Amino acid sequence: MSGPPVSLLGMDPRSVIRDGSTVTAQATVDPAHEVFAGHYPGFAVLPGVCLIEYADRSILFDQRRTGRHVELAAVERCRFRDPVFPGDELTLRVEYAGDDGAELRSEVVVSTGRGRVAELRLVHRAVTTEAAR
Questions:
Q1: Peptide bond into 40 cis (omega under 30)
Q2: What is the pTM of this model?
Q3: Domain ranges of the chain
Q4: 17: exposed, middle or buried (C-beta count within 10 Å: 0-12, 13-18, 19+)?
Q5: Is residue 42 within 8 Å of 23, Cβ to Cβ?
Q6: Residue 22 in contact with residue 93, Cβ under 8 Å?
Q7: Which of 27, 35, 50, 121 is the residue whose CA sits 20 to 30 A from 9?
Q8: Is 39 a catalytic residue?
Q9: Is 3.30.70.1150 the CATH number for 15-132?
Q10: What is the CA radius of gyration of the chain?
Q11: Is the four-CA dihedral 20, 125, 119, 60 of positive or negative sign?
Q12: Helices (DSSP H) in the chain: which residue ranges?
């Protein structure tokens, strides 16, 4: 199935699985990505905004395969708990918390083998297929 790339950082998930209102995705953070050269030299850490992007793109991928087009409208909550390093294995768990047809709310937890690294609350809004192109 084709859809948008899941991440501009090359963190394409090995799987995006939906079970009811829960979506799980997994990926490996590419240690060779250029973002690590400047963030931070000598102590490479994935910028937190990349985790928001990964969550957003995973939700877009999940929604598109059901024929729905959405776009990120708000990051209502964002808590980074632990750094993410090159080569880390990420597990992203999305719980859809509310969907009125126009707005989709989600609670997202991103983890590595060390535990939770981020907690997010995202809001996506539905867009027409013309606007999604």
A1: yes
A2: 0.87
A3: 15-132
A4: exposed
A5: no
A6: yes
A7: 121
A8: yes
A9: no
A10: 15
A11: positive
A12: 35-38, 48-64, 129-132
